[in-house]
Design brief:
Elements (H helix, E strand, L loop, with lengths): L1 E3 L15 H4 L25 H20 L10 E5 L1 H12 L6 E5 L7 H4 L24 H6 L5 H10 L4 E7 L7 H13 L3 E7 L19 H9 L18 H4 L2 E6 L2 E9 L1 E8 L3
Parallel strand pairs: 1-2, 2-3, 3-4, 4-5
Antiparallel strand pairs: 6-7, 7-8
Helix pairs in contact: 2-3
Length: 285
């Protein structure tokens, strides 16, 4: 079970973190690329692309290590979750490894690298990813870079479905979130549903605030572990009739490639070595 920290955090900061014995899992945390990121850093925030590869490599390291040590484990029970920036990263990990997770939980994560986030524009999200509109600069953002980071891109969601993604994706998001806007997450959920992906969204409004589980309808919502347990626990509990399992080998075992076409080329995630590597290939003129 991957449990991923927030943007700027380390270890399990801001992540749902359940009792591993309750779920009968090994919990894996990853200090992925730009953990501890601050607004003063000169480079833009990568926004889930390299971070997803990092966490998948961390997961594969544990997966392969259990194999190599001949420690028995249930190959069909691989889960993931994250809070805020970690929610974004787990969504991207599910995109880059569409046959690996049986259930994923996104708590208040970013759905895409919108212009207001990328270029710190007024009137949108309060986040600033520090990109430049000059593609040739060190912080330049191209259209293809934005497209691969978009969980609401319909062509990519259809690709995930065609690769056989059967992951139960639970989304927990505040209607009044000023950092990760609910409107963008709803756009992504609509694209996922159109592709036939198994998404279970829970958009929290002010009327849902009970002072116990739900403390507000913004970015925090409440204790993320408690929220995950309430909305998604049954999909990962070994004694639950709703527990989700993989129906075939995961991407680490398939040694295949995942391809996502974008403007001007395509991104390829290769599992030839078991762990993932990612590359961009420009389209020929």
């Amino acid at each position: 079970m991957l449990c991923l920290h927030n943007w700027g955090g380390h270890a399990f900061d801001g992540a749902p973190l359940p009792n591993p014995a309750l779920f009968d899992v090994v919990i894996v945390g990853v200090d992925y690329y730009q953990s501890g990121d601050r607004d003063s850093d000169p480079l833009p925030y990568d926004f889930g692309y390299l971070q997803a590869i990092d966490v998948l490599r961390g997961l594969q390291f544990v997966y392969q290590g259990l194999h190599d040590r001949k420690i028995p484990f249930d190959h069909a029970r691989i889960y993931g979750m994250g809070g805020s920036g970690g929610g974004n990263v787990i969504l991207m990990a599910n995109k880059f490894a569409p046959r690996t997770f049986a259930c994923v939980v996104d708590c208040s994560g970013m759905a895409s690298l919108t212009d207001d986030i990328a270029f710190n524009l007024p009137g949108g999200s309060a986040l600033n990813a520090r990109y430049s509109r000059t593609p040739a600069s060190l912080a330049g953002l191209t259209q293809s870079m934005a497209e691969i980071r978009d969980m609401g891109r319909r062509e990519h969601m259809a690709r995930m479905a065609s690769y056989g993604n059967r992951c139960k994706l639970v989304v927990i998001h505040g209607e009044d979130d000023t950092f990760c806007l609910a409107a963008d997450k709803k756009r992504a959920v609509t694209a996922m549903r159109a592709a036939g992906l198994d998404v279970d969204p829970h958009f929290i409004s002010a009327k849902d605030v009970d002072g116990k589980l739900v403390l507000d309808s913004g970015h925090r919502i409440g204790d993320r572990t408690a929220l995950m347990m309430h909305y998604a626990g049954d999909f990962m509990m070994p004694q639950s009739k709703k527990m989700r399992r993989l129906t075939g080998p995961c991407d680490f075992e398939r040694h295949e490639t995942i391809v996502y076409p974008v403007s001007g080329g395509a991104y390829t995630v290769s599992y030839a070595s078991g762990f993932p590597g990612i590359s961009f290939t420009e389209a020929r003129p």
